[in-house]
Amino acid sequence: MDTMRVAVLKEPRQVEIEERPKPPTGPGEVLVRTKACAICSLERRLYTGDQVIMYPLVGGHEVSGVIEQVGEGVLTPFEPGEHVVLDLLNRCGECWFCRTGHSNHCVNMWRKGNHILGGLAEYVSVPSKQVFAIDRNVSFPEAALTEPLSDCIHSLMRTHLSPEMKVLVIGAGTMGLLHLAILKHYGMTALVSDLDGDKLQVAAAMGADYAFDRNDSSPNHQLDGAGIPGADVVVVTAPGEQAIQEGFRAVGPLGTIVLFASQAEGTNICVDANLLHYNELTITGSESRTEKDFLQAVSMQNSGDLYLKPLLSEVVPLEDIEKAFEMALDVSKFRVVVAMDGVETF
Ligand SMILES: [Zn+2]
Ligand SMILES: [Zn+2]
Fold first, then answer.
1. Is 138 helix (H, G, I), strand (E, B) or coil?
2. What band does 279 get if pLDDT is binned at 50, 70 and 90?
3. Closest-lying ligand to the alpha carbon of 287?
4. Which end of the chain has less Cβ packing within 10 Å, N or C?
5. How far is ligand 1, taken at its centre, from the CA of residue 244, in Å?
6. How many Å lie between the centroid of ligand 1 and the Cα of residue 40?
7. Which ligand has the nearest atom to the CA of 328?
8. What is the distance in A from the centroid of ligand 1 to the CA of 274?
9. Which CATH class is domain 3-147+289-345?
10. What protein residues have CB closer than 5 angstroms to ion ligand 2?
11. Ligand in nearest proximity to the CA of 41
């Protein structure tokens, strides 16, 4: 087959399947037949037009697949047929941030001509540094969650996490519950709060030690009820200033608050200065992830003890791409995954 199907975003809310030439496998590149691509918040924003890179555009950066061909000069001993996940947020490797191990702040990431995204296609050819082997026992849709998992590893690495700590995750969406999966992988105490009772049930099924309904009372009261004076780490994965303020009320002395979720432009927060002073709090943000975070996400997936299936709300065939995007806009859902070979393959 010399052509492939690709989901092309022509303009906001207009996505079409096109036949395009299958990409060549250049020197140093690996050609991957994609199997699953999850729709992330970035693709949702590109679909609605809330974020614009360019149109037309092929989105998709949470991808798993199978190696089809290995180009000349690839140093890693990749083999055709091997299962892989792809890092499709390519970084330049040359700028100050890339060279100092902080490629999530690469200044050239969105530069024209740079290969980024492109996972909503039947084939992708990328430099081998963007390809990571993954165990066959990780299903393709779950493997597609490796990329967002790496974002959540990055977030927790922004704190001084240690095993005895109690971590509160505000927001039980996909990203909140990926934080939970990591915390439980390390055997830590994890508390989750959300406004959606159904999502809290999923949090409980995924091992949350406490699942708090934010409608009842805010997390600090709930923590009191659970006999916890204050969380050591609070990760805010929910949007809105109220979620952040709840984080400040729930965090204990010496605690850290991670502002993981991006907020609406112009969101300002007001913090009691003495709360920071007397409690010696740390406030930080978290943006994307580095190659090291990605490697850790792969090894966590390969460990076989993550339980991510509840985070796959829908698996949709590529030909129904518009339906997939519309479903992904439904905030009550976790990840919507596009299956390149049709849903029956999973
Ligand atoms: Zn993502
Ligand atoms: Zn760079």
1. coil
2. very high
3. 1
4. N
5. 22
6. 5
7. 1
8. 36
9. alpha beta
10. 91-92, 95, 98, 106, 108
11. 1
Span from the CA of 149 to the centroid of ligand 1 (angstroms): 9
Domain ranges of the chain: 3-147+289-345, 159-285
Q: How far apart are CA 149 and CA 206, in angstroms?
A: 15
* DSSP string covering 252-320: EEEEEEEE-S---TT------HHHHHHHT-EEEE--S--HHHHHHHHHHHHTS----GGGEEEEEEGGG
- Which H helix or E strand runs over 92? none
CA distances for 135 relative to 65, 83, 307, angstroms: 11, 7, 15
Give the separation between CA 76 and CA 172, rounded to whole angstroms.
Answer: 38
Expressed in angstroms and rounded, the spacing between residue 155 Cα and the centre of ligand 1 is 13
Nearest ligand for residue 152 CA: 1
Q: Is the pLDDT of residue 303 over 60?
A: yes
Percentage, residues of the chain above pLDDT 70 = 97
CA-CA distance, 208 to 202, in Å (whole number)? 9
Q: Which ligand is nearest to the CA of 146?
A: 1
Ligand nearest to the CA of 150: 1
Ligand showing the shortest atom-to-Cα distance for residue 59: 1
Q: What is the C-alpha separation between 289 and 42, in angstroms, rounded? A: 14
Instruction: Report the separation in Å between the CA atom of 336 and the middle of ligand 1, taken as the mean of its atom positions.
Output: 12
Q: Strand 210-213 and strand 282-285: pairing? A: unpaired
242-271 residue pLDDT tens: 999 999 999 999 999 999 999 988 999 999
Task: Say if CB 190 and CB 161 are below 8 A apart.
Answer: no
The CATH number assigned to the domain with range 159-285 reads 3.40.50.720
Q: How far is the CA of 41 from the centre of ligand 1 (A)?
A: 7
Gap from CA of 100 to ligand 2 centroid (Å): 10
In 10 A of CB 319, how many CB atoms? 13
Q: For 174-224, how does the pLDDT look when each residue is reduced to its tens digit (9 = 90+)?
A: 999 999 999 999 999 999 999 999 999 999 999 999 999 988 877 778 888
